[in-house]
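Need Ribonuclease 3's 3D structure for a figure. Predict it.
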Amino acid sequence: MVGRKPLNISLYRLALTPAGLGKENERGHKISNERLEFLGDAVLGSVVAEYLFQKYPLRDEGFLTETRSKLVNRESLNETGIKIGLRTILQDYFLEKPFTGSKSLYGDMLEALVGAVYLDRGYAFTKNFILTRILLHFDIEGMISTTMNYKSKIVEWSQRENKNIDYKILEINGNQRYKEFVVALVVNSKEVATGKGPTKKKAEQEASKNACETLQIPT
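Structure prediction for Ribonuclease 3:
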């Protein structure tokens, strides 16, 4: 999976141990992959950012940020984690231990695996691992070609139709680690659509997309 024999196999065992399967140590702390996941998320984001910066030298910061977000979001990482074999490994684990994972289980494990590789082999090896064994599973050009800024469409429509628009946060669910924003798009004081997302910006984008359908705005 990684391309080399592990130098410290315990790091990889830890990376493949989600919180639901972790055991408590003598101090009562549960040993799981969450710390490695934190580290792997940072390393993955850094490598992807550099890759996009080099690949698209003429594109602006907004494009780079949005594309990176699409590559490292939970859905993308989950799918990639399954493709590289993490589900198979967990299924072997489940044979003896009852366990129900979160929706982002394989994405979390993939980030933890990146963290383990980084500690085991260093940044240069990890960068090559990400570029050659993770990013190959992403259709980057396809993601870019299907990207639609629905919020911009709504703004253009409101200016053309002389409408007042506003985005209102209805709810913020979850915890410090995983939040879900629920946002309403309000047109002339009337709520026309809602959207959900892990950030306010993504929730607004989802609300805008739903509003385009409701208001029959061509996209």
